[in-house]
Amino acid sequence: MDIPVYSLVAYLVAAVLFIIGLMRMSTPKTARGGNVLAATGMLIAIVITLLLKEVLNYTMILVGIAIGGIIGGVAARTVKMTAMPQMVGIYNGFGGGGSLLIAAAEFFRYANLTEGFTVQNSITIVITILIGCVTFSGSMIAFGKLQGLVKSRPVTYPMQNIWNLVIFIAILAMMIYLIVSPGNVPVFIALIAVSLVLGVLLVIPIGGADMPVVISLLNSYSGLAGCAAGFVLGNMFLIISGALVGAAGFILTRIMCKAMNRSLGNVMFGAFGAVVQTTGTAGEEGEKVVREATPEDVTTLLGYAKSVIFVPGYGMATSQAQHHVAELATLLEQRGTDVKYAIHPVAGRMPGHMNVLLAEANVPYDKLYDLDDINADFERTDVAVVIGANDVTNPSARNMTDSPLYGMPILNVDKAKSVVVIKRSLSPGFAGVDNPLFYMEKTMMFFRDGKQAIIEILDEIKNL
Description:
A 6-stranded parallel β-sheet has the order 3-2-1-4-5-6. By secondary structure, the chain is an alpha/beta fold. The protein has 3 domains: 78 residues; 181 residues, no CATH class; 167 residues, 3-Layer(aba) Sandwich (Rossmann fold). Helix 5 runs parallel beside helix 7 and helix 8 runs antiparallel to helix 9.
């Protein structure tokens, strides 16, 4: 379509604001301002798009904006921070679903014309359909796994990768057919249906331990779907913003994979965590001795510690213990204890999950340390307190070559002088492997819900 010059200039300004906003999101101090800049860029793009003469029905658009704005505003205000991974997952799906609907609408618009359905139109539409469908259905499965509506363990079946390949080849065949013979409605509907199935089959075999990678990858897919939709509509800003989101999501995915020392292919097709394994014990082979702690035991240990490192994990998130952890840290600091937080890149169920939760509890960001920055400190630390983190603290990742965790960088919790693990049971994490840390002589197991455990410790330490 023919776009006025002022619109192109406005789109360029919006794209620049998007880029600067992304750059400012790289550090916590400027992230809020970066988010405002990116949102401003999106607002400019929306307003300029609405001013274009191609917009035919403002009533429908304004109704859609109102409904979407209300739903988004209510969700942002009411969804708990512990449910943020699910929210991100479902928003990724909505992004893919929106691109899918745009491509479908354009297909039927062109199909009803006597001419004008070009090869270029067909290519952009079928690519958008594929990416949009996979993003939508895959994100819904990811949401279901995070919400507990779908089994979090990998769901596998015989020859699943071969079946996925067969389905993908069938999708390619339908895409080529629609490019060569555009406007075939039955084939188009079949393409949508099979692409949705592919999205489900790609995500269903992925376990909960890989959710940070899946969330960031689906975020990348949603950006690519938006970019493809931009080509369908001939909208420059949608192309730029979609490409930025797609690239950023893929870079984050690579960072997550590196943090797990696994390839993206292994994450997608490895069915990580499908089988529970025993990786080792403390003491003699087959012997597992657990030192169970009481609130008084933990309080005494913390009360005399000069240095403490908290290691938050998904257990802290599910029990919503972050505020109480922050309160405990403050009390310890008032007693002269040096307190730090060790954050593993894939702790939780989305990138930055622990950072977000602790920020909600007003924990100063300079007390949060990444794996590379904190690992050397464990050997000089009196007590390491693990709150629901399992796989990211498992020592078998270093030397047990038969463990699925082997080679994954972990937090060196076992190097601390004493370790307190707050966990409801000895059950393995999402990777499905036992943790030798639980049976070490220096480890005390405090079997409680994360929030309840910290509350009991707080009650005791206030009486010291």
